[in-house]
């Protein structure tokens, strides 16, 4: 694309012309690039969804790799962009960062707003099969298919150069997306992921609600089970986990189960237990640079 077109690309009027199905919500200059938010009608989720996209300065000149970030319980597309401080590193590296919301919104399912760990803000990155939820709660298809198509079709993204990372429920999401789709993501990493949802209270509640009582079907969305049968291209998984994380102490995260399963299948995994760190975005902000550098290595952009 000629340079003048890329200059236009960063102008909202041009963006809205080429993106008839995307509505600009906000645009802020950030580390030489742009932090933007869009809304759109999702065909998978059958509702209006927001996502954020950080466009590094390099995206004005050429196509760039994409990092997908999946957030945790109660989050929207805003938490990571406001709290993680990742834009500085994305700008230096020349990578785009895309953050979806964490569930369908406002779909009027009875009980959808009753708790912080199920329904709104807690889509768990699965495709629901239970009657009550299955029409809207398809976050797995949304983040692995619909959203990448939108990004690749509307932004200067290198379509075969994408990686995924996330936090807590989103760490679980990142791990299962990578493990279920060998070769689709160049690399995967996670902060405090829910590693074995079948065996923890958060996961059992979500999987019962979205997938029903048959635990065999749960295995398709449990990273500890999926990693045992992974046979795709090599993936070196990076996980950071705070040792003072209350949810770790409550048995919600179970990283040791995941590492044992990786060892069983000879899957390389780096689990860094970080003394004195908790579950918060202060922890994520501390180590996000390491995660971006990890991904650069596998996106063919070693720094
Ligand atoms: N009871 C809390 C729990 C919510 C919480 O801690 N959410 C985490 C993710 S936990 C696992 O997915 C989070 O990222 N919160 C957002 C933030 O900006 O810190 C509550 O209801 O707040």
UniProtKB/TrEMBL annotation:
Its EC number is 3.1.2.12. Its main location: cytoplasm. It is an enzyme of class 3 (hydrolase). Coiled coil: none annotated. It holds the Pfam family Esterase. The keyword Hydrolase applies. It is found in: Cytoplasm. Keywords: Cytoplasm, Hydrolase, Serine esterase. It catalyses: S-formylglutathione + H2O = formate + glutathione + H(+). Belongs to the esterase D family. Serine hydrolase involved in the detoxification of formaldehyde. PANTHER family: S-FORMYLGLUTATHIONE HYDROLASE. NCBIfam families: fghA_ester_D. This is S-formylglutathione hydrolase. It comes from Limulus polyphemus. The lineage of its organism: Eukaryota, Metazoa, Ecdysozoa, Arthropoda, Chelicerata. The gene is LOC106469246.
């Amino acid at each position: 694309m000629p340079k003048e077109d890329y200059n236009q690309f960063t102008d909202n009027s041009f963006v809205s012309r080429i993106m008839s199905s995307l509505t600009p919500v906000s645009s802020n200059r950030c580390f030489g690039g742009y932090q933007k938010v869009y809304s759109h009608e999702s065909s998978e989720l059958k509702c209006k969804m927001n996502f954020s996209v950080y466009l590094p300065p390099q995206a004005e000149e050429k196509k760039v790799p994409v990092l997908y970030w999946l957030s945790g319980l109660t989050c929207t597309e805003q938490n990571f962009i406001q709290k993680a401080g990742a834009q500085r590193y994305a700008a230096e590296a020349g990578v785009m960062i895309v953050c979806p919301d964490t569930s369908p919104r406002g779909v009027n399912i009875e009980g959808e707003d009753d708790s912080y760990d199920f329904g709104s803000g807690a889509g768990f990155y699965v495709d629901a099969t239970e009657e009550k939820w299955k029409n809207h709660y398809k976050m797995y298809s949304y983040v692995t298919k619909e959203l990448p198509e939108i990004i690749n079709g509307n932004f200067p993204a290198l379509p075969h150069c994408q990686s995924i990372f996330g936090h807590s429920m989103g760490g679980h999401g990142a791990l299962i997306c990578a493990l279920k789709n060998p070769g689709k993501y160049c690399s995967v990493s996670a902060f405090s992921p829910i590693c074995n949802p079948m065996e923890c209270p958060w996961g059992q509640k979500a999987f019962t609600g979205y997938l029903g009582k048959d635990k065999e079907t749960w295995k398709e969305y449990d990273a500890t089970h999926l990693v045992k049968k992974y046979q795709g291209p090599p993936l070196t998984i990076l996980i950071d986990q705070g040792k003072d994380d209350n949810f770790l102490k409550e048995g919600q995260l179970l990283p040791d189960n995941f590492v044992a399963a990786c060892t069983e299948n000879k899957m390389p995994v780096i689990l860094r237990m970080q003394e004195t760190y908790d579950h918060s975005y202060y922890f994520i902000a501390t180590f996000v640079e390491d995660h971006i550098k990890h991904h650069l290595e596998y996106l063919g952009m070693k720094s």
